[in-house]
Amino acid sequence: MIALPLWQFFILLGLSGVSLTWFFLLPSVRWFLQRRVSRLIDQLNANLDFKLQPFKLSKRQALISALMVDPQILQAAEDWAASENISQARALALVRGYALEIVPSFNAYFYFKIGNWLARSVSQLIYRVRLGRIEEEQLKRINDHSSIVFVLNHRSNMDYILLSYFVSSRTAISYAVGEWARVWPLQGLIRSLGAFFVRRKQHNPLYRKVLERYVQMATEGGVTQAIFLEGKLTRNGLLNPPKLGLLDYMLRNYDPAKNRDILFVPVGINYDRTLEDRSLLAADYNANHPKPGWVKSLTTAFGFLGKALLGRLLGTWYRFGYASVNIGGPVSLQDYLKENNLDLAKLDKDQRIPLVEALAQHLMAAVGRIVPVLPVGLVAQVFLQKGEAGLSLLELKALVFAQVQDYQNRGVHIYLPRQDLDYAIQVGLRMLTLRHFVQEEAGLYRPNPAERPILEYYANALACHEPPGDAKGG
Hints:
Elements: H1 6-47, H2 54-57, H3 60-68, H4 71-84, H5 88-102, H6 108-126, E1 128-134, H7 136-140, E2 147-152, H8 158-167, E3 174-177, H9 186-192, E4 196-197, H10 205-220, E5 225-228, H11 245-252, E6 262-271, H12 277-285, H13 294-314, E7 322-327, E8 331-332, H14 333-339, H15 349-369, H16 375-386, H17 393-409, H18 421-434, E9 438-441, E10 444-447, H19 452-460
Parallel strand pairs: 1-7, 2-5, 2-6, 3-4, 3-5
Antiparallel strand pairs: 6-7, 6-8, 9-10
């Protein structure tokens, strides 16, 4: 017999438990989960229109290691060390820190089993979600050897969720997400959904080189991505001028003879009510308007969702009208370069940037053409054009009907709930009067002068459909 003090016995028991867990239980759990994930990926690739490429399924540490030994990044680290008078080891430590911050850790099981359910549930909780126009035949002709980049207009932070919801049966999308989401536990959740983080105001050349090479590797690896060419949310409802950062990264070293084709798929998104409308307008009219911190932003977001869920359970929640997505036909980069006789990889920055900007404008025009026309924007547009003196319901319907006819003659896609124009006008008018953007007096409707900016915000969403001489912007 061996006698031990009780405290030693418990220590040995604890160490035995740790050893058993570490060497036997955890490997078994990992093997079980990896087997389930592998089976899920095989099932997904058999059914998805755009398959999950090996790069997207690579382990995060492997991607970080690939960045750490990339010749362009090593040269950038050497140059940075020399310019800042620091050791190369310290510069490489910075590179590793940037790579750890940027690179996602995509989890297919979480994305398709939980993420898609969340996107669908949140979208349907807040809006009546509708897929409008989609160029199905053109999308079906996309081959697996192309890199697909969805190009969206940016009206709300719901844009991420809405597009993911609509393409969940086709592919998994990787987004660039700003610094607002780099908080615990949100950043882990977002990384597992395949998103990568971007410091939009970081001009450090070493950081920019790491970000550039990750974007290029992902594009060359065939990862399906989504980008907002505007770079930021629209504050006045108009399309913002395009930002060239991520697009230029994709094109800077592009060689049509060696690299797979990049297909830019335009996506137009619109809402009857944008969640952030008042805060965006406040920021647009007041340059000193303080941005809310991440604590306040998260508190507001979760408070809103909690209120919506409680209202849904009690039967007192009413959704914020319609949200619609249109998906256009792809724009082939190889075809675009061939038609314009361009080879961007052989050009220096001063020669390349104007050409990248021309492509960005071309893509933004394609997005603008397919932004959905929804009831609130349609009715708001008529009130701003004709409603100062007041409109009767009959006059309003006649003017909206004429506007719809004009749009249809020009091939603009209009979403009419229940295929009923009268009902669409009722929906738009009801939302505008409930929010006091439009006032009724003695049977006449007219814009509320105090709310004119927000009425313009919703009408401006359709400015991209105006003839060139009449468009207000975008």
